[in-house]
Design a protein that fits this description.
There is one protein chain. This protein is mainly α and 67 residues long. It is built from 2 helices and no strands. It has helices at residues 17-29, 34-45.
Length: 67
């Protein structure tokens, strides 16, 4: 069917909006997306063969909001 996802849609519960947004910003800086990084972590966590621990992106540059 045209409007069906290829994979089951999985929700993440217990994650507040600020954490979700910060995670989205971080994966964007790493040129990735939330799904890819969560999947990478899960594969590493359950010790899938050849799975590597995800790397954290560089910290964001501090903003100069004092102007």
């Amino acid at each position: 069917m045209a409007n069906q996802h290829r994979n089951k849609l999985r929700g993440v519960r217990g994650v507040d909006d600020e954490l979700w947004d910060d995670f989205g910003d971080a994966v964007t800086r790493a040129d990735s997306d939330r799904s890819a990084e969560l999947r990478r972590f899960m594969e590493w966590y359950v010790r899938r063969p050849d799975a590597e621990h995800p790397r954290r992106p560089a910290a964001p540059e501090p903003s100069d909001d004092t102007a």
